[in-house]
Amino acid sequence: MITISDLNKHFGRLEVLKSIKVDFHAGKSYAMIGPNGSGKTTLIKCILGMVVPDKGEIAVSGKSIANDWAYRKLIGYMPQIGRYPDQMKIGQIFDMIRDLRQDQDHMDEDLIREFKLDHMKDKRMHTLSGGTRQKVSASLAFLFDPPILILDEPTAGLDPIAVETLKEKIQSKKSKHKTFLIASHIMSDLDELSSHLVYLEEGRILFNDTIDLLKEETHESRLGRAVAAIMKRNLKETETA
Amino acid sequence: MIKIAKYVLYDILRNRFILLYTLFLLIVTLSMFSLDSDPGKSTLSLLNIILLVVPLVGVIFTTIHFFNSYEFIELLLSQPVNRKTIFFAEFLSVALALSCAFLVGVALPMVLLNLNASTFYLILAGLLLTFVFVALAFGASVSTRDKAKGIGIALLFWFYFTLIYDGLVLYIIYSFSDYPLEKITLLLVSLNPVDLARIIILLKLDLSALMGYTGAFYKNFFGSHLGIIYSFLFLLCWIAIPLFLSLRKFLKKDI
After folding, report:
1. Residues B227, B205: Cα–Cα separation, whole Å
2. Count of CB contacts below 8 A, A vs B?
3. Contact between chains at B255 and A93 (C-beta distance less than 8 A)
4. ipTM score for this prediction
5. With contacts defined as CB-CB under 8 Å, which chain A residues touch B80?
6. What are the angstrom distances between the C-alpha of A46 and each of A1, A9, B30?
7. What is the pTM of this model?
8. Which of A9, A67, A129, B82 is most buried, most CB within 10 Å of its CB?
9. What number of other Cβ atoms are within 10 A of residue B140's Cβ?
């Protein structure tokens, strides 16, 4: 579904992504893990075309995304920190996005209802708490029922009830063969939600395979410990090298 | 694009800045015409104010608006919307909003009070200057992420074209006064949109006699049809080139 080859990006002198090569296959759910500043969000923004890579190519469903924009119809994106025009009301944001995408008639408004956002349509975005913003972001990502969903730290800042609601939503979409790309630091969530793991460190992909294989390799039954094991292994390798 | 422009315009009209700007222009225009009974003199005084205020408000309002709509742009970019569309929607909305303020504040009372050729040129020059400085301010806004820096660069454009440039031209003319400089000063004038606008209107007001030999030369050149076309083409370039450069930058900008 998404093919990335030889992707490079630097901000100033800092190399954020170093020849990233990865395929995200349709209908699978990928967990993206890595320390802070390892390039997860940059990689996601490259896929969305918000950050323009220096080198390399990204193709979504077989078509290069360079100078294209229509492919974003296929993607629902939930940003790490949802930033919205301060003066707009919740209802106006949803109306505007719906208005811009009138060509899509199939809409999934479950999350808006479940998060009770329809009861606070008239609240302005700058009055919202971080958690409520996250709810708006999540509802927007799922609104057009896209085949690809990219979630950047989806559960950070949400209350436990909202986390469960969102996780149920992800599970139900997963069973409908949507492709998921979830960046997170909460291993237990990822253990439940994804089947594959992409491990990034300092702009390189150090592991990319199924979570089951990782657990087998490291003789651990929990994702958190398995990831800790490869992180330690990488640390030793860099020390000896 | 019209859909996006609609939301941008809605956002612009919500804060009262445009309304205040319109009122300000209206008061200035009306007071200029009530102070002096000679409409030519009033037009001249008005011209001097417009040549300072229109570019200044253009650059400040545009940069502040651009940085305040960063979130809006970010939101749209995660949706299937073309970057070019976002850029032109933003540009046109800002430029049209400021032009409307100018039309209501200056053009309307002038047409009602005093209609002649110079009025027409003053209005046209004001509108073109609005577009020129909005385009320049877009260039300043897309070239940095820092709001203060963006406004700083935009203000520098204003300082340069309204104050510093004239000083430089005077210096050049003074230092090389022994040489025939008409063609060179003509070129130097073309490189500054504010001067270009000023000279067209001064010539239409028939004040070129005040400008000496150079004025006669200008009158000869700008007074002709060719001269008018030349100056408007140059002003259009002053819109198109900054706009093109900032679009190119915006298309590659990391949001």
Report:
1. 16
2. 58
3. no
4. 0.88
5. 69-73, 101
6. 15, 9, 54
7. 0.90
8. A9
9. 23
